[in-house]
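Review form for a predicted model. The reviewer records the input and the model, then writes brief findings.
Reviewer: anonymous (R2)
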Amino acid sequence: MKPHHQFLRFGLVGVLNTGVHLGVVMLVLANTSWHQMGANALAYIVASSFSYLLNARWSFRVKHHWRGFLRFQGVTILGFLASMFLGYLGDLMAWHYLFTVFLVALTVPALSFSLHRTYTFGHAAPDPDPDHQPDCFGRFPKTRPPLPPAYRAIYEREYIANRTEGGAANRIARFLEAWMHRQVAATAPRGPHTILELGAGSLNHLPWEHHYQRYDVVEPFKALYESSPHRALVHSFYASLADVPADQHYDRVISTAVLEHLLDLPAELARAALHLKEGGVFCAGIPSEGAWLWSLAWKYGTGPAFKRRTGLDYAVLMRHEHVNTAQEIEACIRHCFTDVTIKRFPLPFRPLSLYTFVEARGC
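Model under review:
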């Protein structure tokens, strides 16, 4: 990445970091008996950790490490001392305070950026970025990591529960996932049209769709949809894309939280493209797998709930299920389609997103 692009991202992280610090202070003071000093100390720890991780993953695209975190704190302290020195110099030279503020705002961020680029992150190993690797097809087909016996014993039950049952963690997850369903449904034309849904699961997306004249689904796991109240609305069920008749074409091929599971993603995308009508659209909602915020969400959201229920580590199941990152999925879609639009939620930056929506045309 070019230095000026890194600097712009570095500056944006600084703005977001200020918001994080302020938010933590307000949250602590509103809900605890802490004094301002304690609240600001905690806010500094949270905000500086946030800033380090986001700068490592997004601004400089390197792997984070505890040594890098210590270097980051050292540069931050140096920036603070530089600000104090310029303030002292302003008093000594009797500068107008606005000139001093301008000088601090101009020099300290530039100094911090230069030191972070050369010292904090300059020696770190680069973080792989599939968006910049046109040979992403060489990664496929992948091999799914095997599940230990304890996981296999509960796999089907947990899989169905994740898609159909309650529980606070599952309800929150499905509430957030609604963004993906809304984005996919928003691509529908006004008039009657045909739809093929990949990995339809329990048919939980179907109620979001309207005005379709034919709705077909691809879903190999029959137990997910056998008891669905929406089953009668589906025209045809297929166990795989290869089972869809070659002469059957659709106005829309859609999927929600599916592409991250596919072992041979490029082949499946190519098959999906072949089933699109002229001018048709392929659209997919996916978790932002590999993003910092998404990792935090499952590690501290659904992960602990799974641990309490089963006594097992959720990370093992996630490695088995989510074999593709959001970056890999986006890169493969760009290879298959010429017109690709990407949206993210809740913020438009990959590291700070939970979900990603991809709309693609022109195969």
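Findings: The beta strands are 193-198, 212-218, 236-238, 250-256, 276-287, 339-346, 353-361.
Further findings: The chain has eleven helices and seven strands.
Recommendation: see findings above.
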